[in-house]
Amino acid sequence: MGSKDAAAAAGGRSQHAQTDTGAGWEAVFVDPIGQVVQQRWADAVLAVAFEELEPVSAFPVVPGRRWGPGQWWSATTGRHVSCGSAAMRAQLTVLDRDPEVVGLAGRPVRLLWRDGSGQVRSWVPQLFARYRDGTAVLADCPSRPEAGGDRARKAAKVLKAACAQAGWSYQRLEPLDETRSANLKWLAGYRHPRNAGRPPLAAAVREAFAQPRPLLEGAEAAGDPIEVLPAVFHALWHGHLTTPLDVPLHERALVSPSPGAGTGTGSEGCPPGTGSLASSSASAAGDRHAANGAGGSAPRTGGRHRGDGR
Q1: CA 58 and chain centroid, separation
Q2: Following DSSP, what letter does each residue of 13-65 receive, concatenated?
Q3: Cα–Cα dist 150/106, whole Å
Q4: Which SS3 state, helix, strand or coil, does residue 267 take?
Q5: pLDDT digits 0-9 by tens, 67-123
Q6: Would you say the C-alpha torsion 305, 306, 307, 308 has a positive or negative sign?
Q7: What is this structure's pTM?
C-alpha cells in the first residue's frame, strides 16, 4: 500500500481509536517499506524516526492557488522534504537554518483520537522537526492565523497535549514579516554546498568580513563579486556570517562575523535551539522558528546572482 492510500486506510481503521485521553491516542504512519502502520501514540514516539518517513497522506492540490505541493531540498539533511504550500516552504527556510534541527519531514504522522462525544477525530500536522537533543516538534503552517477554523483550534489542543506527553511540542507557526521572509527566501537559494566555493575563496570571505563591513565592499575585497557573492550568501545562510534580516538585504547591508561561527551556535534570525518553537512576533534572539509567505524582492547586489538549490 502506497502513501497515497494512507488516509483511506486511517479512516477505515480509525474505529480502533479509543478515547481522547493519552491512553487512546494513536499514530498512523507509512513505514520505510511503504506499509501503513497504526499503533499507540506513546509507543510510536519512542520507536519511530518520523523524520525519515514519507507523508502519511498527500498534500492537497487547491485549484487556483499560485503555489502547490513540491519538494524542499534540506541543507540540514541533504534530502528532500515534501512541502505543501508557500507558507510551509517559508517555515522550512527557518527550520533548515536552525543548528539544533537534525531532521525534517512533511506530514509523516496522523494522530487519531475520540472527542468527548465518542466521535473519532484525526489530524495530520504539516511539519515534523527533530532536534539535536532528541526532542521534536509537530507544526502546522497556516497562511493566516485563523486558517482551519474551529476544527484546527480543537485539534491544536489535542496535539499540544499529545506532544507534551512525549516531551515534544506542537505549534501553529505565525508568519514572519515580509522583509524577513524575502531575505530568507533569497539566502535559501545559496544553501547548497556548491555555493561555498573553493577553500581559498571561503577563507578569503572570512578574512574580508573579519570586521563588520558593507556586503558589496567586503565581496570586492575578497575577489570578483560575481564569484564571491554566492559564497557570502552561503555563509550568511549557514550562520558563518551574520546580517540583520529585519531590514532589506542590499549591497550596503552590514555583514559581520557570526559570534557562533565554528562553535555550533546560530546567526541572527537563527539562534541556538531551546527545544521548542516560538512565534515570529518576538525578536530573533528570543524566537526560534517561524516564517511564512516567501514574497518580496531580491537583494540589490547588481542583479547578477540568482539563487539555486531550491
Answers
A1: 18
A2: HGGG---SSGGG-EEEEE-TTS-EEEEEHHHHHHH--GGGPPPSSPPPP-TT-
A3: 23
A4: strand
A5: 678 899 999 999 999 998 888 899 999 999 999 999 999 999 999 999 888 899 999
A6: negative
A7: 0.76
